[in-house]
Amino acid sequence: MRQPIAIILLLGSYDPQTRSYLETVKEEVAKEFSGENVYTFLLDNLEIYYTDTVQVLAELWSTRKATLFIFQDNRLINVCDVDVKRSPDETTYKFLQKDYNIKTFAKQPIFSKFDILMKLAKAIFLIRDKEETRGGEYVELLHALFQGHSNKVWFFKRNNMRLSAMLMEYLDKFRIKMRTYNDESDLKRAITRILKYELASQ
Fold first, then answer.
1. Which domains does the chain have, with CATH numbers?
2. Contact, 69 vs 56, CB < 8 A?
């Protein structure tokens, strides 16, 4: 049965502390919106595949486990947990060939993957927790802004963290919604509160 889906995209540095925050937020959203077809994703453990009949978003839980979200005409039609044998690509291809009789199969490169996820996302949360990280999430932020998704972006930074003048120019120019937080609990509460209003409008 086809059903609507709300995708939430989490961006941030993958240093241990920020990564832990991202995972905690992901778990909190899953708990808060259980049964409502709300799915939260981190960019680094996703692959997207296009075929002649369906599109697949594969969330990789480990080297041996993955969940396949199968779409047709931008609607979710199936969710399947699979055991990864040799590689996610091969596992996904064999599963789709068997169950959906696909003829073509193409893994999307990273920029295409990011573009697809931004278009599908109901909301995009960027978390900046530490100043000493390399700031790769800023590249993702600017890509989202230049692709016209600024209305979906929420920028969270730890309280008292200073941002560069150039970054503030971009945030102001694109009217990015900004929030500060003090700790993990504060961050979880703020994001789930925002999502209650965002998802109520879908």
1. 6-200 (3.40.50.450)
2. yes
